[in-house]
Amino acid sequence: MKFFIDTANLKEIKEAQELGVLDGVTTNPSLMAKEGITGKNNILKHYVDICNIVDGDVSAEVIATDFEGMIKEGEELAELHEQIVVKIPMTKDGVKACKYFSDKGIRTNVTLVFSAGQALLAAKAGATYVSPFLGRLDDISTDGLYLIQEIREIYDNYGFETEILAASIRHTMHVVNCAKIGADVMTGPLSSILGLLKHPLTDIGLAQFLADYAKGNQ
Ligand code: E4P
């Protein structure tokens, strides 16, 4: 399972990269705004800064909602750096743009996916990644994990190569459950990755080992 971090915060991206388990970054316009990154040039520069920190894929989202606009913006984003994956919304024009980019060998991440039918369409259009939003479904008392399970089954039935990128991860158990049902990638906050480290018996055991060592080596 690949681990992506869902943020535009360079400090957090560096911390995750230094842990040695990071495979990529996803961003969206809200995450960029949260970091105060505004204006086209600053936004493009920020994507390059992120690419220079991580080794893996960096999703950069188009703002245009029409086909021509998405193509223009997506091509510009893809030219920025070889690690860029063009993030496109799940709309009619988005599906057309996904097919266009896929035919041109430009990698894509189809975002804002909330149903198995949308995920099927994204795979048919040749998406590199499809992003079902787990946490946002859970927020409205709908089982987000079940959606990922459905997509896994559909993709396996037909051998689609589109990778399932479990997005809108909120906590560590989302990560563990996504791994159990076979999501290819998860993207979440740094805390959802760091939470995997924690177990009280590890802390107690380590303290005991160190105390016993200290007793015999005074
Ligand atoms: C996906 O790529 C999105 O950036 C993201 O995971 C959205 O998560 P949220 O529901 O926490 O905003």
TrEMBL record:
One of its GO terms (biological process) is carbohydrate metabolic process. One of its GO terms (cellular component) is cytoplasm. It is found in: Cytoplasm. The active site is at K87. It catalyses: D-sedoheptulose 7-phosphate + D-glyceraldehyde 3-phosphate = D-erythrose 4-phosphate + beta-D-fructose 6-phosphate. Keywords: Cytoplasm, Pentose shunt, Schiff base, Transferase. It comes from the Bacteria. Its main location: cytoplasm. GO terms for molecular function: aldehyde-lyase activity; transaldolase activity. Its EC number is 2.2.1.2. Pathway: Carbohydrate degradation; pentose phosphate pathway; D-glyceraldehyde 3-phosphate and beta-D-fructose 6-phosphate from D-ribose 5-phosphate and D-xylulose 5-phosphate (non-oxidative stage): step 2/3. Pfam families: TAL_FSA (PF00923). InterPro entries: Aldolase_TIM, TAL/FSA, Transaldolase_3B, Transaldolase_3B/F6P_aldolase, Transaldolase_AS, TSA/FSA_arc/bac. Belongs to the transaldolase family. Type 3B subfamily. Transaldolase is important for the balance of metabolites in the pentose-phosphate pathway. This is Probable transaldolase. The gene is fsa.
